[in-house]
Amino acid sequence: QPVPTVNDGAVKVVVGDTFKSQVLDAGKDVLLLVYAPWCGHCKKLEPIYEEFGKLAAESKTASESLVVAKMDGAANRLPDEKYKVTGFPTVWFFKKGSDTPIKFMGERTTKGLASFVQQQASSAVEIFVA
After folding, report:
1. What is the domain extent for residue 52?
2. CA–CA separation, 4 vs 33, rounded Å?
């Protein structure tokens, strides 16, 4: 996919050409959703993930240390075999400075995502979920 000209939403859009700069070299922790537009489970997760992105953006600690991002896995190539997606959706957490993803296996809710991020984060983050 082409690099987006505007990418200022709460959830950043990553494409194959920007994976390294936006995920591996971000200088922050990164939560990355790899999805496919035709995937039913992805469509169900999308509004939850977008809401989580907004909650993280509203949190002072999370907005300073976390990037919430998504990538169309059907339209973009991942740069290395290490990042093999075996099913959609896949949510990975990349600790700041690490190129090894931690796979999210929890409940697909804003609370589940917040709990996962708080457990994995390089620095303490507070994300308030109603």
Report:
1. 12-120
2. 17
Query: Is residue 7, in this structure, part of any structural domain at all?
Result: no
Asked if 28 contacts 67 with a C-beta cutoff of 8 angstroms, the reply is yes
38 occurs within a structural domain: yes
Asked whether the predicted pLDDT for residue 93 surpasses 90, the reply is yes
Amino acid at site 33: L
Angle between helices 110-120 and 40-58 (to 10 degrees): 60
53 within some domain? yes
Backbone angles phi, psi at 12, to 5 degrees: -75, 145
Residue 85 tokens read as 């997606």
- Give residue 80's pLDDT: 82
| Domain assignment present for 116 | yes
Give the integer Cα–Cα distance in Å for 39 and 35. 7
Mean pLDDT of 118-128: 90
Q: Are 93 and 34 in contact (CB under 8 A)?
A: no
Supply the pLDDT for residue 46: 97
Q: What is the CATH number of the domain that holds 103?
A: 3.40.30.10
Averaged pLDDT of the chain: 93
